[in-house]
Amino acid sequence: MFRLSRGCDRVLTHSKTLNGEISKLHDVSKEIHEILAKQLEEPKVLLQPQITDIQTLLEFEVKKFDESSTTLHKKLDVVAKTNTLLIEDITSFNKDYTITLQDKMEGDTQVFT
To answer: What is the mean pLDDT of each successive set of 10 residues along the chain, which is 113 residues long?
Structure first.
């Protein structure tokens, strides 16, 4: 029985020692975590103004591109409308010219017969 209680005392002592070591390791890992979190926060704070500048620049460029594309669409609409009018005028002119040419040919054939 003396051996058993002595063995239990050793296990209890080792258990307390291990709990103390685990507690120390937990505290160390918590401190390391806090240090790493602080170190990771610093670059984020340093990069934030640059990120904001890039976002502002991108917004400006997108707005400029949008305005350019709108202007281009307006110019293309004018070109399309002009082409349509030219085609209508050419078609109309060709019809009138063809009719006039046919009338002239009929008149010429009547003169020579």
So the answer is: 64 82 92 90 85 94 94 94 88 70 68 60
- 3-state SS, the chain, equals CHHHHHHHHHHHHHHHHHHHHHHHHHHHHHHHHHHHHHHHHHHHHHHHHHHHHHHHHHHHHHHHHHHHHHHHHHHHHHHHHHHHHHHHHHHHHHHHHHHHHHHHHHHHHHHHC
Here the tokens at position 66 are: 């949008």
Amino acid, single-letter form, for residue 44: K
